[in-house]
């Protein structure tokens, strides 16, 4: 049920178990260029960095690389994760079929070339673009109507029939591996930049992200290792899941200097149906959730009525951390911002 490349949705092989999966926060990315704001590595700056990260939650905007937008040098031939070689000759009309991919394209400075979006691209710069998904499935007709010159997808994008129809129309479709952990951020950024003919911009963005991630991780308080359970809930659909190994959230929790409760209690799948026994065994000190997920069960009071929650340290102390939908598991330019927020909020007493 991990949704590494499609925020709000598990991969298709787990689609029956949950409607979506992404925890995020709607805030601006840190700084521009390789010397972006927020690269102070002093641990004492954690609260300041987190406060800065949350100043623009309503804006939900991106900060592109400094300087003039890059000019694609094409054609290029790249490897596609579906085993094909794809030649991109024109990047004047780009269509990313994933919110995290779209975020990278915009941050590279190519946002004015993007002609549409899928439902997971929720940031401000993309909100007025035509939507090409119905529910979470790609509409080939909607894509073709926008006349894209290159389409960026990932292995979880579907249905396959729609991708085949787009490719059969002569449009290059570059398929990417999903990003499921911090280590995937630089690889995905590099592949997108190469496919669009702007490899140097990709290097600059990776440099910025790397510096900001290092600063965020350096701010972890020494000696603090709280146990955090990531719960995905949709009360209206009776979906109650706990994250475990490979959920994506486990990588972020670890980067924030905490322990993933699901992993520590032996959950070896990305998501497992939530039980009171599992919660009592995990004993999380903090519960991490989507804000919409918490709303769906009636807020904190409603969450405490879920069997097993009250018996955990997190439930007894009402230590519930919520982040808005949109960024966390997209693993992109704003991931350092997510770590800043988590470092500040999960280590509070």
Task: Describe this protein's structure.
It contains 13 helices and 13 strands. α1 packs across α13 (335-346), α5 runs antiparallel to α6 and α6 packs parallel to α13 (335-346). Strands 8, 9, 10, 11, 12 and 13 form a 6-stranded mixed β-sheet that branches. A 3-stranded parallel β-sheet has the order 3-6-7, sandwiched between helices. The protein is globular. The longest helix is centred in the middle third of the chain and has 20 residues, at 199-218. The protein has 349 residues and is of the alpha/beta class. 33% of the residues lie in helices and 15% in strands. β8 (227-234) and β9 (239-243) form a beta hairpin. Residues 1-44 have low confidence and may be disordered.
Largest sheet report:
6 strands, mixed
Overall mean confidence score, pLDDT: 85
CATH A-level architecture of the largest domain: 3-Layer(aba) Sandwich
Extended strand count: 13
Shape category: globular
Task: Look at the structure and give the CATH class of the largest domain.
Answer: Alpha Beta
Helical content class: 25-40%
What would you report as the Rg, rounded to the nearest angstrom?
20 Å
> What amount of the residues lies in strands?
5-15%
User: N- to C-terminal separation?
Assistant: 31 Å
Total separate domains: 2
The poorly predicted ranges are 1-44
- What do we call the CATH homologous superfamily of the largest domain? Nitrogenase molybdenum iron protein domain
């Amino acid at each position: 049920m991990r949704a590494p490349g499609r925020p709000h949705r598990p991969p298709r092989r787990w689609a029956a178990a949950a409607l979506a999966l992404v925890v995020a926060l709607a805030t601006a990315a840190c700084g521009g260029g390789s010397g972006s704001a927020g690269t102070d590595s002093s641990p004492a700056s954690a609260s300041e960095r987190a406060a800065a990260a949350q100043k623009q939650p309503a804006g939900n905007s991106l900060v592109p690389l400094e300087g003039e937008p890059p000019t694609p040098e094409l054609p290029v031939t790249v490897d596609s994760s579906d085993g094909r070689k794809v030649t991109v000759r024109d990047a004047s009309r780009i269509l990313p079929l994933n919110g995290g991919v779209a975020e990278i394209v915009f941050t590279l400075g190519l946002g004015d070339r993007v002609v549409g979006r899928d439902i997971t691209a929720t940031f401000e710069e993309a909100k007025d673009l035509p939507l090409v998904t119905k529910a979470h499935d790609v509409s080939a007709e909607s894509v073709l109507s926008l006349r894209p010159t290159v389409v960026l997808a990932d292995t979880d994008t579907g249905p396959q029939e729609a991708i085949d129809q787009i490719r059969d129309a002569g449009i290059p479709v570059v398929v990417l591996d999903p990003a499921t952990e911090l280590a995937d951020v630089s690889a995905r950024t590099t592949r997108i930049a190469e496919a669009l003919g702007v490899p140097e911009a990709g290097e600059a963005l990776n440099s910025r992200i790397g510096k900001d991630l290092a600063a965020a991780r350096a701010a972890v308080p020494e000696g603090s290792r709280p146990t955090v359970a990531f719960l995905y809930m949709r009360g209206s659909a009776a979906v109650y899941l706990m994250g475990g190994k490979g959920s994506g959230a486990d990588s972020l929790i670890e980067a924030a200097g905490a322990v993933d409760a699901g992993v520590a209690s032996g959950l070896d799948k990305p998501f497992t149906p939530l039980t009171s026994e599992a919660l009592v065994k995990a004993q999380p000190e903090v519960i991490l959730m989507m804000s919409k997920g918490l709303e769906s069960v009636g807020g904190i009071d409603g969450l405490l009525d879920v069997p097993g929650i009250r018996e955990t340290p997190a439930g007894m102390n009402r230590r519930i951390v919520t982040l808005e939908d949109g960024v966390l598991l997209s693993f992109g330019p704003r991931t350092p911002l997510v770590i800043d927020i988590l470092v500040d909020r999960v280590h509070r007493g």
